[in-house]
Amino acid sequence: MSVRKQLRTALCGLALTGVVVTAAPATAVATPAVNSAAKKSPVTAAEDAAARALARSLADSAWRAEAGRAVADGTERGLGALAGGSRTRAAAPLAAAVAAADRAVATAKGLPADTGALLTVTLTGATHSGRAPLVAVEPSDDEATAVTAYDTHGRAHTLDVSRTPDVPVYVVGVDGEKAVEAGTRVLERELAAAGVATAAPDATTPTTSATSASSTGFWTSRITSVRLDDDKETWIKGDAEIFSIVSGFGLDGKVRVDTVTHPYLDDAGTTYHPNQILVNWSLYKYNLADAVMMEDDGDTDYSALAKAIAAALLTIADLGAYIPLVDPVVDAVPSSFWTDDADFVDAWYTLAREMTGTRDGAGANGRFTFDRYWVSAL
Length: 378
Known about the structure:
- The protein is of the alpha+beta class.
- 26% of the residues lie in helices and 27% in strands.
- The protein has helices spanning 5-12, 42-57, 61-70, 79-84, 91-108, 176-194, 209-212, 302-313, 326-332, and strands spanning 28-31, 77-78, 119-125, 134-137, 146-150, 156-160, 168-174, 217-228, 242-249, 255-262, 271-272, 276-280, 288-295, 344-352, 357-360, 366-376.
- The strands form 3 sheets. It has a 7-stranded mixed sheet with strand order 1-6-5-4-7-3-2.
- The longest helix has 19 residues, at 176-194.
- Mean pLDDT is 82; it is low at 1-38 and 203-212.
């Protein structure tokens, strides 16, 4: 999900940097391979290694036919499972390379080893052209104008992201939904370990829902509809993986953070009606809370994010009146999130318990419609 550079600049006042890539005039042009490892994030480097291995493996006609059938309908498939389940000669070395890349991705994203395989593959472009395929990596930079793809001989080609290529293109990426699910657990667990109250399963603070909700139930703010601006997704980008960081003061007067995932929020320009609870007011001292919406753009390091947010929020004391927490959360985001990435989506200041109706985000990129919803105790 592309997020406009001016949105981040206006709301956060951060200096953004980017890599300008000039696309070749043709759809796919062979170019000399460039050693750009120094410029790549660890996640991108691991994806690139898997993409090169996949490209080389597709020289095996039997494996290429099998892989093509598996993703012919555009379905995202686990790359490791696809290679590991094949008996073709080229699949075995590919499976080993992908397993190593999967481990590298999990480590770079601050996820536990038991997260499992994260790399995926989809097929796009002119899938029925009969031409030899290329393999590209889904870019983390939403403002990139070109990407590098590899052929079965290991040669690099430049693809214009604004034009659908006239050859089949396998796109290697990260399973964002799985990464967000695992990442938000890491985020809450590490925040809890640092002393920030959360809803983490192993949190022992007195402000968890088990101890703070009344015996009859509790009031919530429920999302009845949500929409993000249309920023014109390119052919190579997959669905967005969105989550929100809800923050406020817990019943003990200390800052607390809760995370909410939005797995349905795939496309900009589309209105979704999830009836999803965003804020459980039984967990908060005041009738106000804030929300920062972010996207896992592939490179998100949840462990680093948790440490940065905890360090910022633990310095804020309850002075007897509500203090908005959006700015400390956004300011705490590591600088790497703002380089070649669009992890920040929008923010909502001072959401109120009694609030109903539509609220635009501070950056005018997102729009929530809320109602008040009573959750009854069993």
